[in-house]
Specification:
With 431 residues, the protein is an alpha+beta fold. 40% of the residues lie in helices and 21% in strands. The strands form 6 sheets. Strands 9-8-12-11-10 form a 5-stranded antiparallel sheet, with no helix packed on it. α3 packs across α6, α4 runs parallel beside α6 and α8 packs antiparallel against α9. The relative contact order is 0.13.
C-alpha cells in the first residue's frame, strides 16, 4: 500500500515538474543557454484562451515611465484639507494602476501637493491616460428652442438653431476635441449650447431634481466588450439615483444626441433611440482606450485636479546585458551546486540534484503564474528577487546535506540501507 502511494506521489511530482518547465521556459532560451544547441523557442503553450507570456519584470530590469503630478489645491472646497485630498488621490491612482495590471509601482508623496509615480513596462502616453486624468465623467444635453431645434453659438456670439432630431447635428471638432455644429444658412461652425443632464420630468423625485448625471452615480462594475465591427465598448451601470436621472433624460431626448465628456473632453455623442434605465454604453474605442476608461470609471474620479509637471521615460537601470549575465550566473551557480553534490555523494547526489531541479522549476512557475490572493497576475521579478531565488536553492541543498550526513552516520553504526535512509530523513528533519 505504501509503495503504491509513493508511486502516485512520484507520478504527481513528475507531472508538476513537466508543467512547471513548460510554463517557465523562456521564449528566447539562447539568450541564457548555449546557442549551439537548438533549444525550443516561442510561447509554445496555449491552454484554452490562456497564452504563456514572459516573466513580469520590475522597473530595474524593464524600465518604464516616471510622472510627477501636482494637485490644484486652490480648487479644493474649504472643508477639504490638502492632506485628505492627496491621500485619496494616491489611493485612487494605486487602484487604477493595480486594475490595469501594472505591478511593482512606486507612488510617493512629494512635498505637500505632489505625487511621484513610477510605472514599469508602460509608455508615457499610457501613463498619462491612466493616471494623469481626473476622470470626471459628465453627461450633457443640448438646449432646445421653442421649435425643438438645438441652439448653437457662432464665433461672432450670435445664436442659430439646427435640426436636432435624427442625430448628426452635433459632431466633434478634431482640432479642439469639443462639440461642434454648423449654421445651416452659412455653413459657419459654432458650438452647441449645452446644459448638465438632470432629472426635470414630473415623475422625478424632488430630492434628485437638479443633481447632474456624472460618473459619481455609476456602480464600479464597468466592463469592456468587443463589438461586431472589431472595436470595443465600455458598458456603464448607474446606481438607483443615476438610473432615475438617466431614465428621465433619455425619455425626454428620444431622437436627440446626449453628449458624454471625460475631463471636459468629448468622448462620445450618441443619439437616443429609446428610453433607457440603468445601463449606458460608450462605443468607438480601441482596446487600450476601453481598458483605461474602464479602470478610471471603476476606481472613481480623483478628489482633486492633478496636472503633470514632469514626465520622462525611465530606461532599465541595469540594462539587457546585465540581466542576461545575472540569469546566466544564477544557472552556473545552480549547476555548480549540483555538480558538487554528485561528485561528493554520487547516487544520493544525483537524487538531490533532481530534487533541486523540481524545486527550482516549481518555484519559478509559482513566481510566474502567481498566487490567487497575493499576486493573481504573477510576481514581479527584480534583480534582488533573482539573487534571493538563487540563495533559496543553496538553502535547499543544505537540507540534503543534513540528510545525507545523517545517513552516513547510520550506515557507519551498522544499520541497513533502508533503515539508514529512513533514519536520515526522520532525524535530520527537525534541523
Amino acid at each position: 500500500m505504501r509503495r503504491r502511494v509513493n508511486l502516485w506521489v512520484l507520478a504527481f511530482i513528475a507531472l508538476l515538474t513537466a508543467f512547471s518547465v513548460a510554463v517557465v521556459w523562456p521564449d528566447k532560451p539562447d539568450r541564457y543557454l548555449p546557442s549551439f544547441i537548438p533549444w525550443p523557442s516561442g510561447s509554445g503553450l496555449h491552454v484554452g484562451g490562456l497564452e504563456r507570456h514572459g516573466m513580469r519584470l520590475g522597473l530595474d530590469l524593464k524600465g518604464g515611465t516616471y510622472v510627477l503630478l501636482e494637485a490644484d489645491a486652490a480648487a479644493l472646497p474649504p472643508d477639504v484639507s490638502i492632506d485628505t485630498a492627496m491621500e485619496g488621490a494616491k489611493r485612487i491612482i494605486e487602484n487604477r494602476v493595480n486594475a490595469f495590471g501594472v505591478s511593482e509601482t512606486e507612488i510617493q508623496r512629494e512635498n505637500v501637493n505632489r505625487l511621484s509615480v513610477q510605472l514599469p513596462g508602460i509608455s508615457p502616453e499610457q501613463a498619462l491616460n491612466l493616471i494623469g486624468k481626473t476622470a470626471v465623467l459628465e453627461f450633457w444635453e443640448p438646449v432646445l428652442d421653442q421649435q425643438g431645434n438645438i441652439l448653437c453659438t457662432g464665433a461672432d456670439g450670435k445664436q442659430f438653431s439646427v435640426q436636432g432630431t435624427g442625430g448628426g447635428a452635433i459632431t466633434k471638432d478634431p482640432a479642439t476635441g469639443q462639440a461642434s455644429c454648423r449654421d445651416p444658412a452659412t455653413g459657419a461652425p459654432g458650438t452647441p449650447v449645452l446644459t448638465p443632464a438632470t432629472c426635470k420630468g414630473a415623475d422625478c423625485d424632488p430630492t434628485i431634481k437638479g443633481i447632474p448625471l456624472t460618473g459619481s452615480l455609476l456602480k464600479p462594475s464597468s466592463q469592456v466588450e468587443q463589438t461586431q465591427g472589431g472595436g470595443f465598448q465600455v458598458t456603464l451601470e448607474f446606481n438607483s439615483t443615476g438610473g432615475q436621472i438617466f431614465r428621465d433624460v433619455t425619455g425626454r431626448l428620444v431622437g436627440y444626441q446626449v453628449l458624454i465628456t471625460l475631463d471636459n473632453e468629448l468622448i462620445t455623442f450618441p443619439t437616443v433611440q429609446q428610453q433607457l434605465s440603468q445601463n449606458a454604453v460608450i462605443t468607438g474605442l480601441d482596446r487600450n482606450e476601453a481598458k483605461t476608461l474602464q479602470v478610471q470609471l471603476n476606481s472613481g474620479a480623483l478628489p482633486v485636479a492633478m496636472q503633470v509637471v514632469q514626465q520622462n521615460e525611465v530606461d532599465a537601470t541595469l540594462g539587457d546585458d546585465t540581466v542576461r549575465h545575472a540569469v546566466q550566473a544564477g544557472l552556473i551557480g545552480i549547476l555548480a551546486v549540483m555538480a558538487f553534490m554528485i561528485l561528493y555523494y554520487r547516487l544520493p547526489g544525483v537524487v538531490a540534484s533532481l530534487a533541486l531541479f523540481v524545486y527550482a522549476s516549481v518555484v519559478l512557475m509559482i513566481l510566474k503564474v502567481g498566487v490567487p490572493v497575493m499576486a493573481p497576475q504573477g510576481f514581479t521579478i527584480t534583480l534582488a528577487g533573482i539573487a534571493a531565488f538563487v540563495l533559496s536553492v543553496g538553502m535547499a541543498v543544505d537540507a540534503n546535506i543534513l540528510v545525507f550526513e545523517r545517513m552516513k552516520e547510520e550506515l557507519r553504526a551498522g544499520r541497513s540501507l533502508p533503515l539508514a535512509i529512513e533514519a536520515g530523513f526522520d532525524r535530520a528533519w527537525p534541523s
